[in-house]
Amino acid sequence: MKNEYQSNGRKAAVLVAGSWGTALAAVLCDNGYDVHIWTRNETQAAEINASHSNNRYLPGCMLPRTLKATAIMSDALEGAEIVLFTSPSSAMREVAKQAAPFLPANALVVHATKGFESDTLNRMTTVLSEELGRPEDSMVVLSGPSHAEEVARRQPTTVVVASADQSCAEQAQDAFINAYFRVYTNPDVIGVEVAGAIKNIIALGAGLSDGLGFGDNAKAALLTRGLAEISRLGTAMGANTLTFAGLAGVGDLVVTSTSKHSRNWRAGSMLAEGLQLEEVLSRMGMVVEGVRTTMAARKLAARYEVEMPIAEQLYQVLFEGCAPKAAVGLLMGRGRTHESEQVAQDWGLHQS
User: Fold this and answer.
1) Are 234 and 194 in contact (CB under 8 A)?
2) Does 199 participate in catalysis according to the annotation?
3) pLDDT for the residue 327
């Protein structure tokens, strides 16, 4: 790891100062960047600058002393060579719109948000392209099995950066990679974004299953069939099936569906206790992307004419008042099928 005080003379901007944005800002600081992180909250900015902490989102984590926070968008973006968007999917368009007038012409644009825009069903690269006036091919998405709490503590983490332009992916790889944060490149932007978004739905289901006490057998089946749903939708949207066998696919699915750090898992577990969705979200105090993504996935499944039974039953639990145990019963009672035929179909394989 590079010494956090050894500057490489380059500036990076991070928008916004949630848990993931703050953790990735710390990675860039460790790599020698002069990092400015933007937040609407002046009190939060003052805390980061004075106490080198962000206790609402990363309690107990000390941040690099070189990290600077500001509530002024133009200050954050001025002179930035890399601009990293980490806004929740619901706020991405608004933040991009605010950033557009101040975005340096040659800045590399990266995002690390996992979700779809609710009304348009757009992926985040599309939202950024529309608001920033830049081609989608120039965008980079960072994803993979990576909890912010662990990254902020410099625990070993491996992620993927995807872009249709290999040179852009390699620029992002060079910016983020270090001794504890390993970065691979991938050209499949659609696959990486779909995998990162849909796995949050499966993680909600995993939390629900654990909260109901269904055990490891049930969760293993849920993750396996959940990965099939991710692949089914992703390939219909134009993704490379192999992406779902990698870090952005099975890797992110496993970590989000099994970890105490996962907001989606925790939300599902709280739903299993009988709490209403509004109360769960209130207690969480942070965005649970899987909730909005469940609505988007249902619409995308209809648009692309693919079956997503797990996503459908979670929609019924979240928004139609279906009891969690009843939803499990409906999944278990689905029509019989042959596994090898189903797997071949899900993964685009041809049987001999």
Assistant:
1) yes
2) yes
3) 85
Which whole number is the average pLDDT over 137-152?
Answer: 97
Separation of alpha carbons 280 and 203, rounded Å: 15
> Which residues in 316-351 are b (16+ Cβ under 10 Å) and which e?
bbbeeeeebeebbeebeeeeeeeeeeeeeebbeeee
Which residue is it, tokens 């410099």? 154
As beta bridge partners, residue 68 has 36
Per residue in 224-233, pLDDT (tens digit) is 999 999 999 9
Q: Could you identify the residue written with the tokens 């968007």?
A: 85
Rounded to whole angstroms, how far apart are CA atoms 345 and 241?
11
Annotated active-site residue in 199, 219, 260, 299: 199
Q: What is the rounded average pLDDT of the residues 310-326?
A: 93
Contact in structure between 202 and 258 (CB atoms under 8 Å): no
Q: For 277-288, what is each residue's pLDDT tens digit?
A: 999 999 988 889
Choice between 287 and 59, residue whose per-residue pLDDT is larger: 59
Interval 62-75 mean pLDDT: 98
More confident residue, 285 or 24: 24
pLDDT (tens digit per residue) in 151-205: 999 999 999 999 999 999 999 999 999 999 999 999 999 999 999 999 999 999 9
